[in-house]
Queue: 2 jobs
Job 1
Amino acid sequence: MAQKYTEARKAGNRKWDAANLDRISVAAPKGTKERWKAAAVALDKSLNQLIVEAVDHQISQDRDKGPSEAPQDGFEAGAVLLPSEAYKRAVAASTASGEDLPEFVARAVDVQAKRDKTSLAMGINPATGGKLEKEA
């Protein structure tokens, strides 16, 4: 027979939590929670467990990088949130090219930056394709 979840048990659990756990609030774009929950269910994990493992994994990867892989020039690597469709396209393109997603995105940024520089030199706004307005 299942044990009742009594008020005394709840109080005991809260006391244990307070003594043994840190609480962190995470803010993410609308829709993220449902996507993360679905991923956690697919992996047979709780959302909390998935997040904790993902953060710990990222930290251990960063710690294992050698000095040559460390961020340079005072800049730190960070996460960029992409709209869902853009992320899917990036994953598909990186898979097709045989690159890991971070490598593919870094290369794509370098290529686009070169294109933008060329457009600007020609007086073209790279974001709109229109002519640049001259500053007064």
Job 2
Amino acid sequence: MHASAPLKFIFVVLLALSVGGKVIAGNQSLRGVEQAMQNTEKGQVIAFLYRQGFQMDATGIEMEDVFLPVVAGDCHLVAVLAAPQGWHRDITHRVALPEDQIFFVVGAKVYQDQPAWGPWIYHYWRVLNLYVGRKLLARPVLGIVATPECDLRDMPWQEIAELS
């Protein structure tokens, strides 16, 4: 069976319009998905820190919803919502004073340095799933910079291992 030239032309035009619209709309919705993921994680991390007795520190630094300065008594802590790709690893170390504690929390585990592959793979798997309509739990990567007065050994980090 052979299709006529006008039929082929109509098919190509419809295909181009269909794919082009999906590419444009998909790009916009992907940005929206990433923004919504970050805002949800920030709110839930702040709620977690509040439950642990911390309050927002008005004198601390806050940059583009990445740094969350909190205080509880003499303990000053900056929770860094670190990108799973590792973009905030060096910045986290730079905001610390030499005597400060620095560590990363990923999936309820505490690391001295930010793990690279696991968070990166899960992040893009989650984005892909959100893009097609499935919502997976968030696994935030937190960089923690805390003053020596902070006793963070008993913090229930497992509560933020997987946020909804």
